[in-house]
TrEMBL record:
It comes from the Eukaryota. Residues 20-59 form the S100/CaBP-9k-type calcium binding subdomain domain. It comes from Tauraco erythrolophus. This is Sentan. Transmembrane segments: none annotated. SUPFAM superfamilies: EF-hand. One of its GO terms (molecular function) is transition metal ion binding. CDD domains: S-100 (cd00213). InterPro entries: EF-hand-dom_pair, S-100_dom, S100_Ca-bd_sub.
Length: 111
């Protein structure tokens, strides 16, 4: 499989894209590289992606009730699959509860 960075570099419109545009394009590419032929993501694959591609955001969240609720939902009804919109909502939800978000907020933006 082609690395995400190389796939991202091949998108001409993003050649001069903003950091935010590239971030969302990366999320879309990660999603697209993992979907089934119907363009959806199984819940098992979603959990795997979270553990491999989003591990620093979910690290330490295991005891939080909201995190447990989200992961439980992925364990139930395995035949249901996530579309891109659901996947992005999941990422945003996990980001908002993440301890890493506070660290990000504390990053100095000036010298």
């Amino acid at each position: 499989s082609i690395p995400i960075a190389k796939q991202l570099a091949s998108i001409k419109a993003l050649g001069k894209g903003s950091d935010l545009e590239k971030a969302f394009a990366t999320a879309a590419l990660v999603y697209n590289n993992s979907v089934d032929p119907e363009g959806k993501l199984s819940k098992a694959e979603t959990k795997s992606l979270l553990q491999t591609q989003f591990r620093h955001f979910i690290q330490g969240q295991e005891n939080k009730p909201k995190y447990q609720e989200i992961i439980s939902a992925l364990d139930e009804e395995l035949e249901n699959k996530l579309d891109f919109e659901d996947f992005m909502i999941l990422l945003v939800s996990l980001t908002l509860m993440s301890d890493l978000l506070q660290e990000i907020k504390n990053v100095k933006t000036t010298k």
